[in-house]
Amino acid sequence: MKKLSRLVCIFIIIPFLAFGQIKNRAFLPKYDKLLKKALLQSGERKDSLRYFLNTVPKEHYEAASFLIAYMPERDLKTLSIPYIKDQIDGAYKVKKEFPWCSKLPDSIFFNEVLPYYCFDEERDNWRNDFYLKFSPLVKNTKDVRQAIKAVNANIRELLSVEYNTKRSIVNISPFQSIKEKMATCTGLSFLLVDAFRSVGIPARMAGTPMWTNMKGNHSWVEVWVDGQWYFTEYYPEDLNKAWFLADAGRADISNPRHWIYASSYKPKETYFRLEWDTLSTAIHAENVTKRYIDLYAKQQLLENLKPDEVWISLQLFQSKSDKELQRVAEKIVI
Q1: How high is the pLDDT of residue 215?
Q2: What angle, 0 to 180 degrees and rounded to 10, lies between the N-to-C axes of helices 185-198 and 127-138?
Q3: Are strands 261-263 and 284-287 parallel, antiparallel or unpaired?
Q4: Which residues lie below 8 Å from residue 131, measured CB to CB, with a gap of 6+?
């Protein structure tokens, strides 16, 4: 019995000795205050996060610093180290594999490829699963535009998720929407953002808390192409082409409720106010209202409407009996 007791003591003590022998890395100056604050917010997980920062590969150290420095408090207290490691390893895997990702500036790679969430959804560990699904689609594409089209064209078939307001919750997470096979614009956009990020395409959520015609809110996706942001959807037409552009182009730049926002992992000057959680200020976002107003003005100019012509907005559905199936984009002449 004495020998057994000694063995038990040895196995308990070794991890603490190993932890104590690892020298703390100095925080990078630009993250120093942020990381110290994040570690304090993490509570009992402070030592685990510090240990992770000390042992992450040097080439991943700044990414790990960025991710933890700007991590929401709820995630600092709950996300496991293997989960965080999966996000970083997966992001660097596609950075090495796909040329459009390897050429990205760190500011875009860190903020629009590396992040693991969009809004306030459950933190599913989607990155590797989505990589296995979507990387075969883009591995032979010539550039990021072709890669975007490949993902857009196949995501519905691969995930079998359709637009439906009968989903369990508005901010349905990727794995839950796949399980239910349904989501509204928010959940569908989560899927698309994560699919793009899983193959190194910078992507973020965009949308408005409320259209100026007061007909509700909407969410969609933006992708980074050759130094510019373009919008797209789960049911795509083409980059910077969608049914909602006229509504977005009529946004009220004087009223934050009617602004167009683009989400950001790193804090910005403004917040995306979620209609289902009006008290939340956790969704950092950039005000991109003017860009959508300008895009709509450009479209009107290109269309060159005659004096007796005007744009109208209609909604079409596949079936009169079931308006939950999906939107359909069609040209109508009256």
Answers
A1: 87
A2: 70
A3: antiparallel
A4: 90, 93, 94, 198, 199
- pLDDT value, residue 318: 60
pLDDT at 57: 96
CB 219 within 8 A of CB 231: no
Nearest CA to 101 out of 203, 199, 231 is that of 199
Tokens of 307: 């004096």
Dihedral of alpha carbons 104, 25, 50, 10, sign: positive
Q: What is the DSSP string of 240-266?
A: TB-TTHHHHHT--TT-GGG--EEE-SS
Query: Residue 12, exposed/middle/buried by CB under 10 A (0-12, 13-18, 19+)?
Result: exposed
Q: What is the CA radius of gyration of the chain?
A: 23
Closest to 235 measured CA to CA, from 331, 148, 152, 317: 152
Give the sign of the dihedral formed by CA 24, CA 59, CA 103, CA 79.
negative
> 10 Å Cβ neighbour count for 147?
27
For tokens 């660097």, name the residue: 92
Are the CB atoms for 257 and 251 separated by under 8 Å? Answer: no
CA 181 from centre of chain? 20
What are the counts of helices (DSSP H) followed by strands (DSSP E) for the chain?
Answer: 14, 8
pLDDT along the chain (334 residues), means of 10: 48 44 86 97 96 97 98 96 98 98 97 96 97 97 97 97 94 96 96 98 96 91 97 94 93 93 93 68 87 92 69 62 53 63
